[in-house]
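Please, structure for the following, as tokens.
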Amino acid sequence: MTTSIDDINGRIVRCELCPRLVEWRERVAREKTRRFAHFEYWGRPVPSFGEKNARLLVIGLAPAAHGGNRTGRIFTGDRSGDWLYRALHRQGFANQPHSVDRFDGLKLRDCYITAAIHCAPPGNKPLPEEFKNCRPYLLEEVALLKRVRVVVALGRIAFDTALAVYGQPATETGSRARRPAFGHGIECELDGQRTLLASFHPSQQNTFTGKLTEAMFDSIFERARELVGQ
């Protein structure tokens, strides 16, 4: 079946494969939270975002209930997104360092952002079957994003997702390479053509505690820029 990035994103936005996620994202959009009571929530699956010929692919976990699920754009309207777009902007992958809503003029340069799950999950914890339902969209995306040379995985789940989607190259003897362990700054080959960079997720759980500093996060995208080139 011939498809395109736009077609995939269109199907993502219409997806209702996971009843638990459908109920949660719509309930959050109805009930809102006090600080965003005036905001019209998106309340649907959040599509991927970026350039179709990008050499950098960023994989996250899932939209935040009052971030992407509110604004309709991935990593937008929450503190994780603040960290991500500042880092991307510093390395020339975004035209501005902030992402407030999907009408704010943000454009990515040579970068595409997707997620393991496209709906906000309760407690930020998707179930195994929900990952399974969402995986085909990512498989279709990576098949079309042929120019990708660097994949940045934000968090352990995104790291495992990248390894599952791209696979690892065989060793010189033809056997499978040992699966790399997740850790911030870990760098490894995926399929012999792309490099995977691992980062702690820029969630408040990590940034407020100092587990992830801005310098640590910037170093990931500095390395991505080095690998991608100017």
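The chain is about 35% helix and 10% strand. The first helix runs from residue 5 to 14.
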